[in-house]
Write a structure and sequence with these properties.
- 38% of the residues lie in helices and 0% in strands.
- The chain has 79 residues and is an all-alpha fold.
- The chain has one domain.
- It is elongated.
Length: 79
């Protein structure tokens, strides 16, 4: 998600476009989720549609956690 911490990493990268492209490619769908998409997941959890979810962890990160590959350096260095 393009949250503050990610934006700071992006701004501190030696080549911010390379960093962004590499990080986007790590997402299963090839892009970083927008804040509104994460908010939609939170709204779903507040809806009647989520009534059967009790005590479950829901990670709204576009699949990054499930498909995480450790940093290889391909994204370039950040300060």
């Amino acid at each position: 998600m393009m949250a503050g911490l990610f934006k700071r990493h992006l701004e501190s990268a030696a080549d911010s476009q390379r960093f962004f492209d590499t990080r986007s490619a790590r997402q299963p769908n090839g892009r970083i989720p927008e804040a509104r998409e994460v908010a939609s997941a939170a709204l779903f959890l507040l809806s009647e549609g989520a009534v059967a979810l009790n005590g479950a962890d829901v990670t709204a990160d576009g699949g990054l956690t499930a498909s995480f590959d450790f940093r290889t350096g391909a994204e370039g260095a950040s300060i």
